[in-house]
C-alpha cells in the first residue's frame, strides 16, 4: 500500500486530491496531510474523509525541519501542494511566499534526499505562471522560466530546486506545471470564486485593466487526476505541463458568470502591476505519455461551480476574507 504525504492538503487543490484518493476507485493508500492551516487551509475541506481509517491529519509548517524529517521518513511518496498561492498577496508582501514556497520546499526536498535517496517519489506541484507571459504559441516543458510576480518567482525557485534535488541527489522528482484551476472549495479571493461569491452577494465583478488577460482553465478534479497519473506513472526528473485547453479572456469569464447568476455588472479597476497578459501550456507530453485528457467540459464545470457556491454559502460567506480584485 502506498504511504503518501500530502502537503497543503487542506487547501483548494490538495483537498480535492485527498478526497479523490480516499473516495474514488483509486488503489488503496494511506494518506497523511501536513498543513499549517493558514487563512487558505480549512479542515472542513477534508470532512468527507476525516474518519477514513487510512487518513491522518498533522497540523504543522513545512519549514519545521524536525517535523518534516519525521513525516518524510514515514512516507515514500510525497505530493507537495503547500504554498502561498495568491498573486495579489505576493504583490502586497512577498515575505511569506519566499519562506513557504522556497524554504519550505527545500526543507521537504532535503529530508527526502536524506531519508530516502532515490527511493521516494516527490511530486512537486508547480504552475504555468513560471513561464511568464506568452504572447503567442504555448510553453513547452523545455522553455526557459521567466516569472513576473513574486508569487511566480518563488514557484519558479521551488520548481528549479526540486529538479536540482533530482540531478544532485537522485530524488525521484516529478514536476507539474498546471494552468488556472476552478471548481468547488476555492477560496473567494481567487478570480472565478470571487466573481461568483460577489454576484451571489448582490455585488459586481471587479476586473483588472481591460479584462483581456487570457488564462487557460482546468477543473480542479481534472488537475487532481493528472497529478495522480504523474505520481503513479510519471518518470523521475520529468516535467509535465497540465492544461484544460480552454483559453479565455477574464472579461469573457466575468460575462459568462453574470449570465449564469442572472445579475450583476463588470466594474473595471486599475491593472495589477506585472500582470501577465497570457498563459498557455503545450500539454502534448502528458497526453501522449500518460494519456491525460481533461474530462470536465468548461461550460458544464462553470455552471456546476456556480451551483456549488450557491449551495454552500456557509462555507464562503462568514470569513469572506481577502476579496481583492484580480
Ligand atoms: P491554496 O492557497 O488553496 O492552499 C494552500 C494550502 O497550503 C493551504 O491549505 C495552506 O494552509 C497550506 N500552507 C500554506 N503555507 C504552509 C506552510 N508553511 N506549511 C504547511 N502548509 C501550508 O492553494 P491551491 O490553489 O490549492 O494551490 C495548491 C498548489 O497548486 C500550490 O503550490 C499552487 O502554487 C499550485 N497551483 C495552483 C493553481 C491554481 O489555479 N490554484 C494552478 C497551478 C498550480
Overview of the molecule:
The protein has two domains: 2-181 and 217-242, NAD(P)-binding Rossmann-like Domain (Rossmann fold), CATH 3.40.50; 188-215 and 246-278 and 296-316, UDP-galactose 4-epimerase, domain 1. α5 links the parallel β5 (121-127) and β6 (172-178). The N and C termini lie far apart (42 Å). Helices cover 40% and strands 18% of the residues. The radius of gyration is 19 Å and the shape is globular. A seven-stranded parallel sheet has the order 3-2-1-4-5-6-10, sandwiched between helices. A three-stranded mixed sheet has the order 7-9-11. The chain has eleven helices and twelve strands. With 326 residues, the protein is an alpha/beta fold. The longest helix is centred in the N-terminal third of the chain and has 22 residues, at 95-116. Nicotinamide-adenine-dinucleotide is lined by residues 8, 10-14, 35-38, 40-41, 61-63, 81-85, 100, 104, 125, 127, 155, 178, 180-181, 187.
Write the layout of secondary structure elements.
Blueprint: E1 2-7, H1 12-23, E2 29-35, E3 55-59, H2 65-73, E4 77-80, H3 87-92, H4 95-116, E5 121-127, H5 150-169, E6 172-178, E7 180-182, H6 191-200, E8 205-208, E9 214-219, H7 220-233, E10 239-242, E11 247-249, H8 250-261, E12 266-269, H9 284-290, H10 298-311, H11 313-316
The structure holds nicotinamide-adenine-dinucleotide (NAD).
Amino acid at each position: 500500500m502506498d504511504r503518501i504525504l500530502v502537503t497543503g492538503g487542506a487547501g483548494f487543490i490538495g483537498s480535492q486530491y485527498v478526497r479523490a484518493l480516499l473516495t474514488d476507485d483509486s488503489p488503496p493508500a494511506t494518506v497523511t496531510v501536513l498543513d499549517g492551516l493558514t487563512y487558505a487551509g480549512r479542515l472542513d475541506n477534508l470532512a468527507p474523509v476525516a474518519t477514513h481509517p487510512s487518513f491522518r491529519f498533522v497540523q504543522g509548517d513545512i519549514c519545521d525541519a524536525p517535523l518534516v524529517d519525521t513525516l518524510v521518513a514515514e512516507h515514500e511518496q510525497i505530493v507537495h501542494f503547500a504554498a502561498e498561492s495568491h498573486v495579489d498577496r505576493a504583490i502586497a508582501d512577498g515575505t511569506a511566499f519566499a519562506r513557504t514556497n522556497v524554504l519550505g520546499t527545500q526543507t521537504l526536498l532535503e529530508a527526502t534526499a536524506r531519508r530516502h535517496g532515490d527511493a521516494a517519489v516527490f511530486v512537486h506541484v508547480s504552475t504555468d505562471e513560471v513561464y511568464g507571459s506568452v504572447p503567442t504559441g504555448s510553453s513547452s516543458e523545455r522553455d526557459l522560466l521567466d516569472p513576473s510576480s513574486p508569487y511566480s518567482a518563488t514557484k519558479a525557485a521551488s520548481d528549479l530546486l526540486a529538479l536540482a534535488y533530482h540531478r544532485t541527489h537522485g530524488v525521484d522528482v516529478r514536476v507539474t506545471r498546471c494552468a488556472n484551476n476552478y471548481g468547488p472549495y476555492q477560496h473567494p479571493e481567487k478570480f472565478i470564486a470571487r466573481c461568483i461569491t460577489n454576484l451571489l452577494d448582490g455585488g459586481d465583478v471587479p476586473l483588472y485593466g481591460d479584462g483581456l488577460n487570457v488564462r487557460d482553465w482546468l477543473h480542479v478534479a481534472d488537475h487532481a487526476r493528472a497529478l495522480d497519473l504523474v505520481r503513479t506513472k510519471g518518470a523521475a526528473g520529468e516535467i509535465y505541463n497540465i492544461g484544460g485547453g480552454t483559453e479565455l479572456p477574464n472579461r469573457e469569464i466575468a460575462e459568462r458568470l453574470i449570465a449564469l447568476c442572472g445579475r450583476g455588472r463588470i466594474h473595471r479597476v486599475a491593472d495589477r502591476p506585472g500582470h501577465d497578459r497570457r498563459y498557455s501550456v503545450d500539454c502534448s507530453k502528458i497526453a501522449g505519455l500518460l494519456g491525460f485528457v481533461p474530462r470536465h467540459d468548461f461550460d458544464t464545470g462553470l455552471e456546476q461551480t456556480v451551483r456549488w457556491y450557491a449551495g454552500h454559502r456557509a462555507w464562503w460567506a462568514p470569513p469572506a476574507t481577502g476579496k481583492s480584485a484580480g
